[in-house]
């Protein structure tokens, strides 16, 4: 058995073993989401809500072009905007760490060793 076939066989066996628990957990998550959806009275947005959001966004973009708009913003609003930006950046960093599976940088050594095989 060559290495590729052996790897594929192992991966298939592992996926088969995990399929039961994964399906169970997916069904449980679906039921919980359904209960939250019903209990919170959630519903997809209506066409009127979409139109309202569109108009608000267009108004924001139009107002943002005016220098007077920025002069009328209070110090507290600037601080609040900075905190929201810092929070968004923190979420981005956490996503990067999860994506790399490492706190600092990417595993360059593994990428270099892969290039040697080609």
From TrEMBL:
<dbReference type="Pfam" id="PF04718">
    <property type="entry name" value="ATP-synt_G"/>
</dbReference>
<keyword id="KW-0813">Transport</keyword>
<keyword id="KW-0375">Hydrogen ion transport</keyword>
<keyword id="KW-0138">CF(0)</keyword>
<dbReference type="GO" id="GO:0045259">
    <property type="term" value="C:proton-transporting ATP synthase complex"/>
</dbReference>
<dbReference type="InterPro" id="IPR006808">
    <property type="entry name" value="ATP_synth_F0_gsu_mt"/>
</dbReference>
<keyword id="KW-0496">Mitochondrion</keyword>
<dbReference type="GO" id="GO:0031966">
    <property type="term" value="C:mitochondrial membrane"/>
</dbReference>
<dbReference type="GO" id="GO:0015986">
    <property type="term" value="P:proton motive force-driven ATP synthesis"/>
</dbReference>
<protein>
    <submittedName>
        <fullName>ATP synthase subunit G atp20</fullName>
    </submittedName>
</protein>
<keyword id="KW-0472">Membrane</keyword>
<comment type="similarity">
    <text>Belongs to the ATPase g subunit family.</text>
</comment>
<dbReference type="GO" id="GO:0015078">
    <property type="term" value="F:proton transmembrane transporter activity"/>
</dbReference>
<keyword id="KW-0406">Ion transport</keyword>
<keyword id="KW-0066">ATP synthesis</keyword>
């Amino acid at each position: 058995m060559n290495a590729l076939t052996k790897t594929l066989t192992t991966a298939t066996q592992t996926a088969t073993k995990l399929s039961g628990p994964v399906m169970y957990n997916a069904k449980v998550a679906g039921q919980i989401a359904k209960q939250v959806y019903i209990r919170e009275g959630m519903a997809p947005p209506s066409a009127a809500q979409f139109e309202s959001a569109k108009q608000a966004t267009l108004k924001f973009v139009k107002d943002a072009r005016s220098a007077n708009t920025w002069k009328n913003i209070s110090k507290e609003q600037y601080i609040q905007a900075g905190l929201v930006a810092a929070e968004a950046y923190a979420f981005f960093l956490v996503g990067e760490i999860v994506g790399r599976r490492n706190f600092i940088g990417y595993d360059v050594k593994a990428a270099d060793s892969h290039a040697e095989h080609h």
